[in-house]
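On clarity, I found the account of how folds are encoded harder to follow than it need be. What matters is that the chain and its backbone geometry are given together, residue for residue. For the editor and my fellow referees, an illustration may be useful. For illustration, here is how one protein appears when written out as sequence plus structure tokens:

___
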Amino acid sequence: MARIRLGMVGGGKDALIGEVHRLGARLDGQFDLVAGALSSTPEKSLESGLALGLDPGRCYGSFAEMARAEAARPDGIEAVVIVTPNHVHAAAASAFLAEGIHVICDKPLAATMEQAGMLADAVQDSAALFILTHNYTAYPMIREARAMIARGDLGPLRVVQAEYAQDWLTRDSTGKQADWRGDPARAGIGGAVGDIGTHAFNLAGFVTGLRAEALSADLQSFVPGRRVDDNGHVMLRYGGGVRGMLWFSQVAVGCGNGLRLRVFGAEAGIEWSQEEPELLWYTRFGEPRQRLTRAGPGTGPAGLSRTPSGHPEGYIEAFANLYTEAAAAIRAARAGNGRDIGLLPGLKEGLEGMQFIAACVESSAQDGRWLPLDPVTAP
């Protein structure tokens, strides 16, 4: 089976997430990276492209140039991954969608609601797929947790607790990654809430199948001079009387990448941690705690695992799962089977994330006032 020709916008030299995406895209042999606008500086884009073995003629100085040129080639890219700062997402994605090129884009959807609306229109007007990389949804044990809740293994749900704790912004940082994340013009109005809070919010909804109907937020910026939040607590009201609490922080000393989810029902509870991703803890009321393992007895789906239980898989493999499912969706679309992306996050989840960021910032500015979250529809 021929590999899908892939391009990349952003993700050049010294960009961590670009290499993570490249590793995930090639792990299962589904994609070939053949073109890129890897930096907003043409010289750096060429340097990064050559280091990756790209044809110099396909190392572009801008995403607009790349979209036009690749669409005109008989061997042009079929899909593009966008791994830029947030304020570039919408314009870059729209340029490729207009050329009929499938888009895989980092979250959040955009830096502003206006940009998000522009991107939503571009998705609506294009026959190409749009996929958002909420990569944590592709961990095997997260899929297992989702299946267990859908089966009713926990009984009626009562409480959802999610947290995402890091410490890398505990002190004022002038590094490249910290710099743009602290700039509202590039990151948007949300700091930690947009960078990692959206992951926790998305994961809670993905696993439980619940939609948050209202929230009350308390955001803080602990580091003097920081223009966006670096810590936040959010209370959530889901349908059916279910209650939720999110905590996200980038100033939690001692925490590396502490994404954690706990869900409690009337009969049982589950717990998962991204730093121990192969384990899912399941406890029925009054019974011993059970440790479920990836690819272990009674768990699945096996298609998301590459090695037997006991041979560790993790972050890169979760990205690979997302890319492999994206490849299947692209091939199905190529065969005329529509725009179904299965369990992959897309425009709807992106718009929900943007709504979440805006509501958190507004609620916090009003001393935690409860604000509604209206249902989101998307093509």
The radius of gyration is 20 Å. The domain at 137-306+353-372 is CATH 3.30.360.10 (Dihydrodipicolinate Reductase; domain 2). The chain is about 35% helix and 20% strand. The chain has a mean pLDDT of 96.
